[in-house]
Design brief:
The structure holds two protein chains of two kinds. By secondary structure, chain A is α/β, with parallel strands linked by helices. Chain A has helices spanning about 1-10, 15-30, 85-90, 115-120, 135-145, 155-165, 180-195, 210-225, 240-245, 250-260, and strands spanning about 40-50, 60-70, 70-75, 100-105, 105, 120-125, 200-205, 230-235, 245-250. The radius of gyration of chain A is 18 Å and the shape is globular. Chain B folds into two domains: about 1-55 and about 305-485, no CATH class; about 55-295, no CATH class. In chain B, about 55% of the residues lie in helices and about 15% in strands. Classes of the chains: A alpha/beta, B alpha+beta.
Chain lengths: ~260, ~500
């Protein structure tokens, strides 16, 4: 079902068809079609409250989403609906105060979150978060080192990843500050792929990029989801991004329901 | 491994800051090396000085105790005090041997004195008063005050304290004097007595007791008393002009031949530790020592010569502590700034999954690499400088120690004299004979030895740990997401 939708969208290739699809998606909010065996990440009644917040002041409340491998998801919502909080919970940067998150059948509560971050998921940020004093390839190799990846020629692998995201080999030895925003974001994506994670989480990955570059980056994510069977989750408030994904989760609606 | 690689990359990247940290650690290391070397040398000197003195205990009459609550205006009290004073027991050599049989005592020696008159020699006339003796056996039966000469017998070389402390200096001595001095009827006499009676080495003198028994003694040495100016002005002869020095065995033989002769014993006990003096005193009382006697040590004298070295040692310690405190604070602050500047890097590394432990290790490793290089350089510079600095600081003390060593040798007749001093070629042997010899230092080797290096290593580790606290705490507290949000 998912692949069909994707192929259909791809084949249409014009604005009318895109519009039609957008309407379809907005109606669906399509968790219903999820096949249980493909679920890679499951959020079950997750809530988060900052340690210094009041008892009833939740940054995120009762969120339950499932994510499948091979699909691209968008989590959207206005400011204050808990997008970034949800991202930090999914990426293991914070732990739920209530509820739980299951990754590949295991609760994050029982996992080493550092290991989870450096092996199971790749994170891409709006502001790239590359180390500016390193070259593009060094940033990617560092990530391989942190994950404990044992391959002979890490630089070769880094160049391979860079080419995969549309960067030439000659960029490998450039300091990242000498790269454009789009190029830096590609390096960040290549870094997140360096240890072949099952899931990519991106926080407004195209927020700082122009339209053309945004489209190119989204294409990369699509390929990762649909061709490499990765689960790609993009936190965004960009309609353009929402138009490109397979499933949209709207935190605004979740918040409204939990506030009731 | 990648931690080391990252640490190295960071060091190269932050050259300026790391050079600054390196310079600070280098200065600290240099100062610490010099200070530790001085402390070591001063410590060695103090130990040497202390060990030059045996831990001596003598038995003294406790006048203060006897005079306590004494009212001289009351006739009854005066009589009681006199009676008490007169009843103080006389002790014999066997008593001393009994006292010396203690776990706290390592060795003992004594001076044994009796009063005799001259037979073939005349007393050098003096104007000084006869002093009340301080030793055992003084009392109404003591006969020294009424005789011409005091024959003082030393049990061993260690007992010859007047020669050790410089009161007497040997002027002339026979070749084999020290071989026979402690066994037989041989004596050392004052040069004033020798001049007064026209006596020379190898002459024989005859003394007699009150019962007119005579005792022949051979002169094997002539000594001189080193008086102070006031004493010289008060009398024609020195106090020791009529003191004849011999060995204890000779005096014991004389007292054994006439039971009426009462001798005075001045024992000195060498103890294992000054801490045991009170226990020893209790043991002596249990063995029969009169409670009007107390034990006194030479601890104060033993330490008096090293006060200036101790001052330098204290100064070095204070300097070391201040250097470490200031250095530690400066390093801590620099690392605090370092961490703040690298907050973003910490956020990124934490986000891509590096553990807090590994990240902390990376920061500590950076500091360790810089510190090791700076410590090696600092220790090298410090080692080169320490000798000169410590030499100039301790020179006076060393000189006076060496001079003292030489003086003691001379007091026993060393240098340019026939008899020389006992075993004078070997300081160790001299020490064995009880002579307080301070280990001679030709120059001060304020050496940066393994001890200093280990101490320096300890200081280096402490500094790294102290200055790493900032990074440890920060890495523990920083939330990567917050850091990255702030950056965004």
């Amino acid at each position: 079902m998912t692949n069909k939708n994707y192929i259909a969208k791809d084949k249409l290739g014009n604005n009318k068809a895109l519009e039609k699809q957008r309407e379809m998606k907005d109606k669906e909010i399509k968790e219903k079609n999820t096949t249980p065996k493909n679920i890679i990440l499951s959020i079950k009644n997750a809530s988060y409250r900052y340690s210094d917040a009041l008892e009833d002041d939740y940054a995120l409340r009762n969120v339950s989403f499932d994510f499948e491998s091979g699909k691209m998801y968008a989590i959207r919502g206005r400011s204050g609906t808990g997008k970034t909080t949800l991202l930090s919970l999914i990426s293991g940067l914070e732990r739920c105060t209530e509820g739980e998150i299951i990754f590949d059948g295991k609760s994050l509560k029982n996992m080493n979150l550092d290991k989870f971050r450096n092996s199971d998921i790749g994170i891409v940020f709006q502001s790239y978060n590359l180390l500016p004093f390193m070259t593009a390839s060094e940033n990617i190799i560092l990530s391989m080192d942190v994950s404990g990846l044992k391959i002979k020629n890490k630089k070769e692998k880094a160049i391979e990843l860079m080419e995969k995201v549309g960067l030439k080999e000659s960029y490998a030895d450039r300091k990242v500050l000498r790269l454009s925003g789009g190029e830096q974001q590609r390096v960040a994506i290549a870094r997140s792929l360096s240890y072949n994670p099952k899931m990519i989480i991106a926080d407004e990955p195209t927020g700082n990029l122009d339209k053309q570059t945004e489209t190119e980056i989204l294409e990369i994510f699509k390929k990762l989801a649909h061709e490499e069977n990765k689960c790609v989750i993009i936190v965004t408030h960009s309609q353009n991004v929402c138009d490109s994904v397979d499933v949209i989760y709207d935190l605004k609606k979740v918040k409204e329901e939990s506030d009731k | 491994m990648f931690i080391l690689k990252n640490a190295w990359i960071s060091i190269k990247r932050n050259k300026g800051r790391n050079i600054l940290i390196g310079i600070i650690i280098l200065i600290i290391a240099c100062a610490c090396t010099i200070t530790l070397a001085i402390k070591n040398t001063a410590g060695d000197l103090i130990d040497s000085y202390k060990s030059a003195y045996d831990k001596e205990v003598t038995i003294s009459f406790d006048r203060a105790s006897l005079m306590k609550d004494f009212d001289p205006s009351q006739r009854e009290e005066r009589e009681n005090a006199r009676e008490k004073f007169d009843n103080i027991a006389s002790y014999t050599i066997s008593d001393i041997e009994s006292f010396a049989d203690s776990d706290y005592i390592e060795n003992y020696y004594y001076t044994y004195g009796i009063g005799l008159n001259g037979n073939n020699i005349e007393k050098a006339e003096i104007e000084s008063n006869n002093e009340m003796p301080n030793g055992f056996g003084h009392g109404k039966e003591n006969n020294m005050a009424s005789t011409d000469f005091t024959l003082t017998g030393y049990s061993s070389l260690e007992a010859m304290s007047e020669f050790i402390n410089g009161t007497y200096t040997m002027k002339e001595i026979t070749d084999n004097a020290w071989d026979i001095a402690f066994d037989g009827n041989y004596v050392f006499i004052n040069e004033e007595l020798a001049n007064y009676n026209n006596l020379a080495l190898n002459d024989k003198i005859i003394l007699e007791d009150t019962d007119e028994n005579t005792y022949e003694l051979e002169i094997i040495g002539i000594f001189k008393e080193n008086e102070d100016e006031t004493q010289e002005a008060m009398s024609m002869f020195s106090n020791s002009a009529n003191t004849i020095v011999t060995n204890a065995k000779a005096v014991i033989d004389i007292t054994n031949s006439n039971e009426d002769l009462k001798a005075t014993i001045y024992p000195t006990f060498i103890i294992d530790s000054y801490d045991n003096v009170e226990k020893l005193q209790t043991e002596f009382y249990e063995k029969g020592l009169d409670e009007n006697f107390v034990l006194q040590t030479n601890e104060e004298i033993a330490l008096s010569g090293v006060s200036s070295i101790q001052n330098i040692n204290s100064f070095a310690t204070t300097f070391l502590v201040i250097t470490l405190i200031i250095g530690g604070i400066v390093l801590f602050v620099i690392n605090m700034i370092n961490i703040r500047e690298r907050k973003y890097e910490i956020g990124v590394l934490r986000t891509i999954g590096i553990s807090k432990f590994k990240l902390t290790m990376q920061f500590v490793l950076e500091l360790v690499i810089v510190s090791v290089v700076a410590l090696i350089l600092g220790a090298g510079i410090g080692a080169v400088s320490s000798k000169g600095v410590s030499n100039s600081l301790l020179e006076n003390e060393i000189n006076s120690s060496n001079e003292r060593t030489e003086e003691i040798g001379k007091n026993f007749g060393g240098d340019n004299m026939n008899g020389g001093m006992p075993n004078r070629g070997n300081r160790g042997e001299m020490r064995g004979k009880g002579m307080p010899v301070v280990e001679a230092y030709d120059s001060i080797d304020a050496v940066v030895d393994i001890k200093v290096l280990l101490e320096l290593l300890g200081i280096g580790i402490a500094l790294v740990l102290v200055s790493s606290i900032a990074s440890m705490v920060s890495i523990e507290r920083f939330s990567p997401l917050t850091i990255l949000k702030e950056r965004s």
